[in-house]
Amino acid sequence: MHTRVDIILSSQYSEDKLLLVIATIQDILRQLEKTANYYDADSELAQINQTASLDPVKLSSSLYEMISLCLEYHRKTLGCFDVTVHSEHYTRNTIQSVQLSAEDQTVFFQKKGTTINLSGFLKGYALERIREILESYAIKNALINMGNSSVLAIGNHPNGKGWKVDFGKRIHTGKDGEDNALILFDECLTTSGNNSAEHKHLISPHSAKLVEGCKQLAVVTTNGAIGEIFSTSLFVADEEQRALLIDRFHLKTVIEL
């Protein structure tokens, strides 16, 4: 992930107790990096990308869960969300070579050169793991901001209902008209896109090319992992696919930046 994480906890707990909560969050983030960092040659995912085309490879429970969810939503998003787009000689059928065994919790790549990249998903998954930690410590009010692109808001700010997220410019929120901010209450805001016309990093599964232009797209959902899937899918989708996905999944707040 290699991203800054801002944590706000609003609680009557002692400072020592809250520091323990933060330390627990840091531990889980380090674990996720070791598990699913595509760019770390020593991560579990990197090792799988190197060997899963030779023989089935046993997965940790968390990596199995991540890959299984991504394959499920590849189907549900009309192929717009595809974690194999960085594979060698990629085609829209490459993802079909990823074979998961629920019984053995293994993965096998039927096609050599297939790789899985979870970079467009991992921060949202991390938000859900952080949510579990906060619930285990009975933290009722918190804001977690990962790199200004993946935000988890739980409960309320000390001075009002929900948590205000300011975009710095007027936006069309879809459900509230136009404003320069959103109020999140037990919700996640996830953003995908290009920071500039030069910094392109998302590949369209339909064209196998980088999506051009300086634009971003954000969605509000109740689950960070699913939110990452939707923001990425909607960003790479064409207009017809985007409209269909918004309607199919009842996405009430979709923001074009």
Automatic annotation (TrEMBL):
EC nos: 2.7.1.180
Entry cofactors: Mg(2+)
Keywords for this protein: FAD, Flavoprotein, Magnesium, Metal-binding, Transferase
Gene3D superfamilies assigned: ApbE-like domains
Cited Pfam families: ApbE
Catalytic activity: L-threonyl-[protein] + FAD = FMN-L-threonyl-[protein] + AMP + H(+)
One function term, GO molecular function aspect: transferase activity
Enzyme class: transferase
Tree of life domain: Bacteria
UniProt-listed InterPro entries: ApbE, ApbE-like_sf
Protein name per UniProt: FAD:protein FMN transferase
